[in-house]
Amino acid sequence: MRKEALSLLQSGTVIPATPLALTADKKLDEKHQRLLMRYFLNAGAGGIASGVHSTQFEIHDPKVGLLAPVLEIVTDEVAIFEAATGKTIIKIAGACGPASQAVKEAELAKKLGYDAVLLSPGGLPDIDEAGHLTRARAVAEVMPVVGFSLQRAVGGPALTYKYWEAISEIENLVAIKTAPFDRYQTLDILRAVAWSGRSIAMYTGNDDTIVTDLLTEFSFPRNGRDYTISFAGGLLGHYSVWTKTHVDMFAKLRQARESGEISAELLTLAAKITDMNAAVFDPSNGFKGCISGIHEVLHRQGLMAGIWCLSDHEKLSPGQARELDRVCAMYPELTDDDFVQANIGAWS
Questions:
Q1: What is the mean pLDDT of the chain?
Q2: Which of 210, 233, 282, 307 lies at 20 to 30 Å from 218 by C-alpha?
């Protein structure tokens, strides 16, 4: 992993999980895929995660054949941006499937110059925790690994404290995306890492409690010593919408946590962000519209040509568009429509 990228990962940043831009006939829309990358980068994102849940896991199917093209677009746009600005952008590629597939995808990411792979545990019902650990170790032989606790509603397994204790011992594990959407499991993961004594960067993926996660310093006393740990940043599907707002917010949240001055206003903000996320992620319908909800926001801003997904089952739920109307009307200060409209011409 590039030294600068590792330093940024550990210090903390905003990492959007990339959506997939498609045409009406479900082909890759390269124009809008590149537009999305330019939006994220110019909004101030410190990293890009692609080939992950928000990019649609179907792209990992060789019959679909979109994993390499999407990863190539991302790394190309990041290279252009880094050359123009002198900034370092963390590049994270998703890896899925059994160990053999995940290793091949890690090799592809390495070839394309990615910094780490986010190892998805989903879609593997026949693998137990020991199998997941063996798989993680195999991938870590190829690339630095970002562990991933994926919520069960979208296919993640229930992983125990013992699993997180064991995976924290893998030398090439550089970060963990904590996204069980479950406070009990979140605490298990944080405690395991805190007690490991290692410098593993923790990233919240709990889209339902983003602000609270980023404001909190977690404490786990043991044997007379107080082990504290905090989320360095967020790696989130929610960060792919209204990205500029979240970049600006992230700096304020980190300053508040470091100073210990957590105001009631920030707790109110936390509730507002969760309300906005509910409209995007569609929890009332079992998250069925979460990917389409992301697409709908970006489509309304002109950053995507439509909300098409690879699967016909991925679509807005009844009433979801009205919920998006509601939160945008209630919290206009938490959108970034003005930023997008002022700059989209230059990005196109």
A1: 95
A2: 282
